[in-house]
What does this fold into?
Amino acid sequence: MRKLISSIIVSLDGFAAGPKGELNMFKVEEEFFNMSGKLTEAADAVLYGKGTYAIMQAYWPTAGDQPNASKHDKQHATWYNKVPKYVLSTTMKGADAPNATIINRNVADEIKKLKEQSGKNIQIFGSPGAVRSLTELGLIDEYHVFLFPVVIGHGIPLFKEMNQSLNLELISSKAMKSGAVALHYKKA
It folds into this structure.
């Protein structure tokens, strides 16, 4: 059975992005990109919320073709362009996601079907709303939380108003040179 793996950046005060979805306060560097690369190597499908999909789709299809593309941009763009993409959205239509499958109803059943298929992991990057929804449905198997040494004060929280508690078991932690900490959890 495939695992559903969440990978998300978060501030010390629990925000996954600024109020308008901005991420510029998180200073990512090569070590972070290397860790993210290992997650993509272990996945052959990706799942996004509507907003994160729009951000990814605006950048990644051509990012590796740019003259100043970094090694990470080339590798991630290649991966992004070849893997099946799934988007959780009740408002998007097929034309809004030309290279993705939109999941807009029976979310739990549809995700369970994806997990039952053979293959590697299904990766979720960002998408705090989708992560909250899928956490409440008990569908996320592991969490990679990149805790950055920044306090935002307000923004889009990773977890808010959850209807249940979530107990996790720490698998590993790694302090990065940037001061961020990579935390890897599984459901307890």
The chain has a mean pLDDT of 91. Helices lie at 30-41, 50-63, 71-82, 107-116, 128-136. DSSP finds five helices and ten strands in the chain. The radius of gyration is 16 Å.
